[in-house]
Recover the amino acids of this structure.
C-alpha cells in the first residue's frame, strides 16, 4: 500500500483513493502512448491514435461508469477504456490486431471498441466515421427511456443507467450530431455528451472550421444543460462528471460537458503532429500528467510511491507489449464468421391462405402484421415521419396503431432520416425491437451513413457481440405521377451494403410473412414496399391482394417464390423461358405471359439480399433461357449484376444471352404521366422481349 503523509495534505474535494487510482491509470495511458511511439516502426503497421493529453477527462468518466451504463467512445479514447477496467494487455492485443483482441478479433482499428461484459459498461460497435456514434448512443438513451415508461426496465435501486456519447469538438460539426442533440432535447433523454475539445481537426485548427465551440452551440438546444471545464484537470473533471452523472441518474435529462484539453499525441500514427502544427509547446504546458502528479502530492501520496508506480507500470507495459506482439493472429478461415447473426426463421410456417377470409389489400397485410407483433411483444415500437396517431403514415400504413398503442410506442420523429435509421442500433442494443419507416425511398440517402457505417457492420466488426435487430420500412417505386422525388428505385444501392438484408415482396401475404420474419431476425432488414401495389389500383396488379395469412405465418428471408410454372412439353421442346423478377415486375410478367400460354415460368425473388441462387440457377438450367425484369434502369444495376452472375455460373446451360427489361436510363423519373409511362417498363415491353427471347 502507498505510504501517505496526511500532514502535508492540502485542501481538496476529491478522495485520496480516487487520485491514486487516477494517477496509476494516467501513468498507464502515458506509458502505453510512449511505448507505441518508441516502437513506431512496429506499432504503426495498423493505424492508431492515443488519448495523450485527454487522459484526465477520460479517466474521470471511465472510472465512474457502472455496468448498466452504455458509452460510445471515439478513436482517441483508450483512457476511457482503462478507466472502465480494460487492461494494457487487452488494449495491445487490439493495437496488434490479434485473434484475442477483445473488441473485434482483429477486424478493426485500435480503440474502436465493442464490449459486452456483465461487469463493465456496455459499448456497442464503434466505427471510424466521425460524429456517427452520436445517433446510435442517443438511440440507447431513447431505449432506456422507453423501457422505463413501459415498466420494462430493471430495478437498480435508483442507480438508473446513463448513456454517454464521447466525441471530439471537430466531429460535432457533422449534421448527424445535431440530429442527436435535437432528439435528446426534444425527448429529454438520459444522456451525457462529453465533448473533448483539443482545438484541432486533423490539420485544420478551430479557427478554420467552426463558428463557435460546442459549449456555445449546445446552449441553443432548449433543455440541454451545459458545463464547460478544464479537461486537463483531473479533480475538476472527476467532480463535474460525478455531479452530472448523479443528476442524469436521478432526473433523467440530457447534459453536455465541454472539456478543453491539449492534444499531445499525433492525430494518428500515420498523420504526425510535427507535419503541420506550430502550437506544440503551448499544448505541452497543459499536460494533465504533471497536474495529476501535483494533485497526488497535495492529497498526501508519498513521492516514493509516485516513482514506484511509474516504474511498476513501465515494467508491466514492457512485459505485456512483448506478450501481445507475439500473441496468435486471426485465422484467415474465420473471415466470413459473423457476416449475419443466425436467424430462427428458416422455413415457411403458418397458414398462408386461411379459409373463409376475404382478400385484403397489401398495405393492410403489413398493418396487421405490425399490430400483431406489437400486441405480442412490448419491446416492439414503431416510429418515423408522420406515422403517429394523427395521420398513421402518408400511405395509411400505420393507421390505427398510434391510437391503439399510445404515443410512447408509436410516434412521429422530426425530419431526420439518419436518426430514424441509426437510432435503431441503440434501441436494439438495449433489447428493444424497433420498426421504423423512411417515408419514401428517395429520402433514404441522408440515412445511408448510418445504414452502411453503423447498422450493416455492427455484428461483423464486433465479432458477433452486437447484431442490430431492426426493421426498416421503405415505400418505393413509381406510381401515379409521383415525379422525380417520390418515385425512385434504390435496390441497386442498398443491395450493395453487405450486412443488411433486403426484401421486396409483391403480395400482401408475402409482405406479412416477411415482416414477421424481419422482426424475429437479429439482423437489420430493409423492407422495400412498392406503393403502386399497396392498394392494387393499377390494372393487372390485383394479384397483390391476398387472403391475410394467420398470425403465425412467416416467410424465410432469402427464399424465392414460383408465381407460375411452364408446361412440360414447352420445356421439352425448348420453347419455355424463366422470368426472374420482383415487385411490380411480377405483374408486368404475368400480364405479358398470357400472350405465350404455357411457355413462361415466373420466379418472384421476394428477397434481393441474400438472394436465392438455388431457385435462380434451377430455373436457368430447366429452361435454358432467362429474362430479368426490373423497374430500375439496367446499367450498373442490381439486375445487371444478377445477369452477370447467371451467365458466369450457368453459362453452359444457356441457349441465349440473359435478357433484361428495365426502365429507360435517366437521372430521375419525370412528373408528367406520359413521360413516366414512356420511361417505365410495362407488360407490352416485357411481351415484346419475351417473343424475341423465345424465338432466339
Amino acid at each position: 500500500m502507498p505510504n501517505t503523509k496526511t500532514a502535508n495534505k492540502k485542501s481538496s474535494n476529491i478522495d485520496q483513493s480516487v487520485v491514486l487510482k487516477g494517477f496509476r491509470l494516467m501513468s498507464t495511458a502515458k506509458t502505453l502512448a510512449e511505448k507505441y511511439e518508441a516502437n513506431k516502426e512496429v506499432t504503426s503497421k495498423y493505424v492508431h491514435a492515443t488519448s495523450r493529453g485527454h487522459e484526465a477527462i477520460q479517466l474521470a468518466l471511465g472510472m465512474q461508469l457502472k455496468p448498466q451504463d452504455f458509452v460510445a467512445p471515439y478513436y482517441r479514447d483508450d483512457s476511457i477504456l482503462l478507466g472502465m477496467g480494460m487492461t494494457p494487455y487487452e488494449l495491445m492485443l487490439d493495437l496488434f490486431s490479434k485473434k484475442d483482441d477483445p473488441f473485434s478479433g482483429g477486424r478493426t482499428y485500435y480503440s474502436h471498441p465493442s464490449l459486452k461484459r456483465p461487469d463493465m459498461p456496455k459499448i456497442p460497435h464503434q466505427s471510424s466515421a466521425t460524429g456517427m456514434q452520436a445517433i446510435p448512443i442517443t438511440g440507447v438513451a431513447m431505449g432506456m427511456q422507453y423501457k422505463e415508461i413501459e415498466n420494462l426496465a430493471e430495478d437498480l435501486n435508483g442507480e438508473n443507467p446513463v448513456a454517454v456519447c464521447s466525441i471530439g469538438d471537430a466531429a460535432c460539426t457533422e449534421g448527424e450530431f445535431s440530429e442527436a442533440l435535437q432528439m435528446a432535447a426534444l425527448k429529454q433523454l438520459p444522456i451525457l455528451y462529453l465533448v473533448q475539445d483539443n482545438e484541432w481537426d486533423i490539420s485544420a485548427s478551430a479557427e478554420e472550421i467552426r463558428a463557435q465551440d460546442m459549449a456555445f452551440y449546445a446552449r441553443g438546444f432548449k433543455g440541454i444543460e451545459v458545463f464547460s471545464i478544464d479537461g486537463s484537470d483531473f479533480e475538476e473533471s472527476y467532480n463535474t462528471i460525478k455531479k452530472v452523472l448523479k443528476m442524469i441518474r436521478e432526473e433523467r435529462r440530457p447534459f453536455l460537458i465541454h472539456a478543453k484539453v491539449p492534444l499531445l499525441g499525433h492525430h494518428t500514427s500515420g498523420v504526425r503532429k510535427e507535419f503541420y502544427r506550430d502550437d506544440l509547446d503551448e499544448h505541452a504546458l497543459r499536460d494533465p500528467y504533471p497536474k495529476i502528479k501535483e494533485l497526488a502530492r497535495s492529497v498526501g501520496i508519498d513521492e516514493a510511491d509516485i516513482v514506484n508506480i511509474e516504474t511498476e507500470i513501465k515494467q508491466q507495459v514492457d512485459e505485456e507489449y512483448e506478450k501481445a506482439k507475439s500473441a496468435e493472429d486471426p485465422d484467415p478461415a474465420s473471415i466470413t464468421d459473423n457476416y449475419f447473426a443466425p436467424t430462427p426463421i428458416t422455413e415457411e410456417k403458418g397458414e398462408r391462405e386461411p379459409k373463409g377470409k376475404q382478400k385484403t389489400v397489401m398495405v393492410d397485410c403489413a398493418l396487421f402484421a405490425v399490430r400483431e407483433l406489437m400486441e405480442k411483444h412490448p419491446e416492439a415500437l414503431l416510429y418515423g415521419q408522420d406515422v403517429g396517431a394523427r395521420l398513421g403514415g402518408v400511405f395509411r400504413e400505420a393507421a390505427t396503431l398510434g391510437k391503439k398503442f399510445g404515443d410512447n410506442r408509436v410516434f412521429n420523429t422530426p425530419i431526420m432520416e439518419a436518426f430514424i435509421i441509426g437510432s435503431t442500433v441503440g434501441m436494439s442494443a438495449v433489447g428493444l425491437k424497433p420498426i421504423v419507416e423512411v417515408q419514401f425511398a428517395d429520402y433514404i440517402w441522408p440515412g445511408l451513413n448510418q445504414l452502411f457505417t453503423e447498422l450493416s457492420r455492427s455484428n461483423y466488426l464486433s465479432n458477433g457481440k452486437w447484431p442490430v435487430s431492426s426493421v426498416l420500412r421503405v415505400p418505393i417505386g413509381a406510381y401515379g405521377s409521383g415525379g422525380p422525388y417520390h418515385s425512385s428505385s434504390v435496390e441497386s444501392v442498398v443491395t450493395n451494403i453487405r450486412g443488411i438484408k433486403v426484401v421486396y415482396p409483391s403480395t400482401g401475404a408475402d409482405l406479412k410473412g416477411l415482416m414477421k420474419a424481419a422482426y424475429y431476425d437479429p439482423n437489420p432488414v430493409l423492407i422495400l414496399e412498392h406503393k403502386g401495389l399497396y392498394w392494387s389500383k393499377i390494372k393487372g396488379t390485383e394479384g397483390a391482394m391476398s387472403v391475410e395469412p394467420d398470425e403465425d405465418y412467416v416467410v424465410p428471408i432469402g427464399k424465392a417464390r414460383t408465381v407460375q410454372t411452364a408446361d412440360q412439353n414447352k420445356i421439352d421442346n425448348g420453347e419455355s423461358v424463366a422470368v426472374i423478377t420482383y415487385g411490380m415486375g411480377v405483374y408486368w410478367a404475368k400480364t405479358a405471359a398470357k400472350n405465350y400460354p404455357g411457355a413462361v415460368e415466373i420466379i418472384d425473388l421476394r428477397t434481393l439480399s441474400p438472394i436465392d441462387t438455388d431457385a435462380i440457377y434451377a430455373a436457368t438450367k430447366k429452361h435454358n433461357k432467362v429474362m430479368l425484369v426490373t423497374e430500375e434502369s439496367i446499367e450498373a444495376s442490381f439486375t445487371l449484376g444478377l445477369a452477370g452472375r447467371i451467365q458466369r455460373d450457368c453459362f453452359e446451360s444457356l441457349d441465349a444471352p440473359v435478357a433484361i427489361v428495365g426502365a429507360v436510363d435517366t437521372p430521375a423519373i419525370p412528373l408528367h404521366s406520359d413521360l413516366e409511362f414512356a420511361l417505365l417498363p410495362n407488360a407490352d415491353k416485357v411481351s415484346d422481349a419475351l417473343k424475341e427471347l423465345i424465338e432466339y
The first helix runs from residue 16 to 38. Residues 53 and 287 are 6 Å apart (CA to CA). The two ends are 89 Å apart (CA to CA). The first strand starts at residue 70 and ends at 72.
